[in-house]
Amino acid sequence: MDGGAVVAQQNTKSAASKPSVIDVVKVLVRLGPKQINDEIALATAQMKAKGMAAAIAAALVVVGLVFLTFLTVALIVAAIAGLHAAGFQLWAAALIVAGGFLLIALVFALIGLAKFKRTQPLTPEDAIRGLRLDLGVAREGTDFDPKSLDRADEERRRAKAEAKRRSAEQKKTPGEGAPQKPSYTELLRRTALRRDHIAGLQDQLRTRFTRSNTVLDQPPQPQDSLPPEAPAPAPPVDGQDPADARGAKEFFAERWKPLAVAAGSAAAAGAFLRELTKK
């Protein structure tokens, strides 16, 4: 076999062994998800191992903090015992130690409060100002003046301070602002005035009803010397018995006074409610 034949045979074998593009894509499609799943499983196993280690570390830290608490209690007891041995009473020694802890707590609280006040307001002022500058440049271009933002902020602060001052003045000035709750003395005065007003209305109603009763109770004056003629009986209505009509008249004659008193009470109650709504 000559050399040309050998080279041709090798080229044929290499061409036959070289995969096509479709085969490569198939292999990638098959191996890609498997590789991703294995990576996820590896990450999960690693996180589980680290989580277990972190949990053990946290448990050890908690145990250490518990013993540190015991140490703190022991030091407190030792301080109290030392003061007691120095001549102080036991309760006095405990109060001295507690006062020291209170002083330390107040110092740290004041320092924290001062630092917190320095961080106010809790807004990214530089970022907000930069955004406003960007908007101004985008709107006006090179004609935009950054000092206009400072002037607008100053005017806003002045308006807020003026509104706060007006609100404080309205609270101080009586009769303005939110209505104030009446005092106990004011409530007593109001109820006494309303009570007197209701009593006056009741007296007026009683006087009017008394006058009406007097007019109705007076006998009719005779005309000349002739005896008064008896009124003709009213004709029965739809077969009504005259005795029933007389009974109804007698019933209303006996009951008109209680009915008048009830009407007067209702009028007084209405007047009372009207006065309450006016107050």
UniProtKB/TrEMBL annotation:
<dbReference type="InterPro" id="IPR009937">
    <property type="entry name" value="Phage_holin_3_6"/>
</dbReference>
<dbReference type="Pfam" id="PF07332">
    <property type="entry name" value="Phage_holin_3_6"/>
</dbReference>
<feature type="compositionally biased region" description="Basic and acidic residues">
    <location>
        <begin position="144"/>
        <end position="174"/>
    </location>
</feature>
<protein>
    <submittedName>
        <fullName>Phage holin family protein</fullName>
    </submittedName>
</protein>
<keyword id="KW-0812">Transmembrane</keyword>
<feature type="transmembrane region" description="Helical">
    <location>
        <begin position="90"/>
        <end position="113"/>
    </location>
</feature>
<keyword id="KW-0472">Membrane</keyword>
<feature type="region of interest" description="Disordered">
    <location>
        <begin position="209"/>
        <end position="250"/>
    </location>
</feature>
<keyword id="KW-1133">Transmembrane helix</keyword>
<feature type="region of interest" description="Disordered">
    <location>
        <begin position="144"/>
        <end position="184"/>
    </location>
</feature>
<feature type="transmembrane region" description="Helical">
    <location>
        <begin position="56"/>
        <end position="84"/>
    </location>
</feature>
